[in-house]
Give the backbone structure.
Amino acid sequence: MKQIFYSSSVDETEDLAKEFAKKLLTGKPEFVAMYGDLGVGKTAFVRGLASVLAPNAKIKSPTYTIVNQHKGESLPLYHLDVYRISDDEELYSIGFDDYVQNGICVVEWSENIPYSIPKNAFRVTIERTEKDVNSRKITIEEAE
C-alpha cells in the first residue's frame, strides 16, 4: 500500500512520522528504508519516529558514526546513515544483520544498499516540491 502526504514544515514532518511510528510498535523487528536528497528532512522524520519509539532519544544524523542506537520502549531503535557505505562487505562489517534482526532499523540513504533491504521493509521517500522551500512530498510504502 502506498500513501502520499504533504508537509509544509519540519514540525509537520515530525508529526507525520509520529503517526507512522505507531505501525512499528509490533514488538518485532521492523525496517524503514528512507530515500531522499540531502537536506530534505530524513533526520526530522526519524526524530518524529523516535519520539514514539524511543522517547528519551536525542536524534542527530549518524553521518560520521554510521549507527546511533537508542533504547526503545520494547526494542532498540537503530538509526543508520549508509551514505558512506560502498559495498556489501563494508555494510556487514558494521553489524548490519544484527541490527536488522534485533530492533527497529531506520536507514537513511537506503538507495546505497538496495541489495540489503528486507522484502518486508517500509519505504519512506521525501522529496522537495515546487510549492515553497519548506514543502515536502512524503511517500510511505508498506511491503505487500
